[in-house]
Write a structure and sequence with these properties.
The chain is α+β, with helices and mostly antiparallel strands and 249 residues long. Helices cover 20% and strands 30% of the residues. It has two domains: 2-104, Alpha-Beta Plaits (2-Layer Sandwich), CATH 3.30.70; 107-242, Pseudouridine synthase I, catalytic domain, C-terminal subdomain (Alpha-Beta Plaits, 2-Layer Sandwich), CATH 3.30.70.660. It is built from five helices and ten strands; from the N terminus they run βαββαβββαβββααβ. The longest helix has 13 residues, at 27-39.
């Protein structure tokens, strides 16, 4: 038996999220369908996590077991011929049977993209949250610093989150400018449901002068989702990369 690890890139616009679900087509369902056609038998993917409807990924990690002796290029070039244009396998590798893409991950990198522009951009509309007015980027950076470290992020989780604990560790949270685009790069050991999007929405409210960096620190202390910021739209979020310690690969 082999354990094959795939790195999958996708545009999540047309999908109900990564995970198979009854209310719409998922990325997992599409990739598993392509694998079944290739292998001649069902294949169940185990992933590094899930993304919500409309969220994108450059580096979703997923594994499946097979006893087929196909070369790795079949799981990359060959599988890509069976996938739609908005999903692609970027890499395939054989890893130890014990490797688990979710539980062996050490941290994840998400990016939230904001477009600062009074005019709409047809090319950016599916990958960035457009904001017409100016943002105070210095205040946003000060608020970012409040979120770094180990905190109780109860105020930054969506309703229905099934996590056993709301304590998470954010290793870094950086705000970068590139022309009209603002990138929020978040690296953490784990995330609650909609956590990055709520963080992005709250930081935008700081940038608009509706909150202060001290307000963000207070949200962490109070843990009340009802008084934290809005949930930023899903299309601005992208899972960039999942990291693993070398000993598990």
């Amino acid at each position: 038996m082999r354990n094959i690890k795939l790195i999958i890139e996708y545009d999540g616009t047309a999908y109900a999220g990564w995970q198979v679900q009854p209310n719409g087509l998922s990325i997992q369902e599409v990739v598993e369908g392509a694998l079944e056609r290739m292998l001649g038998e069902p294949a169940r993917l185990r992933s590094s996590g899930r993304t919500d409807a409309g969220v994108h990924a450059r580096g979703m990690v997923a594994c499946f077991n097979t006893d087929k002796t196909l070369p790795l290029r079949a799981f990359r070039e060959g599988l890509n011929t069976m996938l739609p244009d908005d999903i692609a396998v970027r890499d395939a590798a054989e890893v130890p049977l014990a490797f688990n893409p979710r539980f062996d991950a050490s941290c994840k990198h998400y990016r939230y993209t904001i477009l600062q522009d009074p005019l709409r951009s047809p090319l950016a509309r599916g990958v960035a949250w457009r904001l017409a007015g100016p943002l105070d980027l210095d205040a946003m950076r000060a608020a970012c610093a409040e979120l770094v470290g180990e905190h109780d992020f109860a105020a930054f989780q969506a309703a229905g989150c099934a996590a056993k604990t709301t304590v998470r560790i954010i290793n870094s949270l950086e705000l970068k400018e590139h022309g009209r685009f603002i990138y929020l790069d978040v690296n953490g050991t784990g995330f609650l449901r909609n956590m990055v999007r709520i963080m992005a929405g709250t930081l935008v409210e700081v940038g608009r002068g509706r909150r202060t960096p001290a307000d963000v620190a207070r949200l962490l202390r109070d843990g009340d989702r009802q008084i934290s910021g809005i949930t930023a739209p899903p299309h601005g979020l992208c899972l960039m990369e999942v990291f693993y310690p070398p000993e598990v690969l």
